[in-house]
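Running this now, will post back.
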Amino acid sequence: MLRVAILLTVHNRRETTLRCLENCWHQIDAGKNEGKYDYTVYLVDDGSTDGTSEAVQSMFPQTVLIKGDGNLFWNRGMRLAWDRAAAEDFDFYLWLNDDTLMNEGALASLMENSEFLRHKAIVVGTTANAAGEITYGGRNRARKLMTPDPVIPIPCHLFNGNLVLVPKHVFAVLGNLDPVYHHTFGDFDYGVRAHKHGIDCVLAPGVLAVCNRDHGLEKWRDAAYPLRERWNYLHTPKGRPPKEQFIYDYRESGLLWAVIHGISVHFKVLFPRRKSNG
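Update: finished.
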């Protein structure tokens, strides 16, 4: 039986986290009759103060719960969960956001497509909102979201980390998420590293999960906030930390683009735009 570690990192979204775990275990239980895969959930609670850990322990005691101090954010929280799981030498590692609810058969689809690709490719799941609009998933070279084919997996260049299956073969080559990043960039960076090492990234067929977009106009470029607030937020882990942005841009597109994009980001802080009223 092949073993799959499901990795999450959460912070102060108790009800969202519990809904995700309920959905996740329902998927796991639905596939148990096949007897091909065994699943373990590793969840990092990054300093929640809303009772998340206690609720998880009570309702889903089979979950491996790992405590963070509130300073990990997404990338480093996922890295910690992955480190803990990797010590047990799993065959697959599945990234899952706690605001992502898998559709029926999503886990089976990810595993089937991985098997089709001989478990040597990263398999990405597409998410959509309640209106059916694609929100996260695979992206092309221009970083634009891609529409999945209804039947076959298709290549993608980058991907969001909401629902991503990484086989052991890929982990052996690429390792964990890069700790240089706090919150953002880690998932895109993993795609860049995959391509540089000749590892395929594919978008699984169809929409596999429901997830609303949680990003509007970023605070650091929103004219509703004064310059000092925009500048300070830019440098927070959830903003657009210039050093991390530069490292990612340099890896993806080289020194010239890293410099140009860095200037562009700071220009947007100085000359922001207002949210649309539409």
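The chain has a mean pLDDT of 94. More later if anyone needs it.
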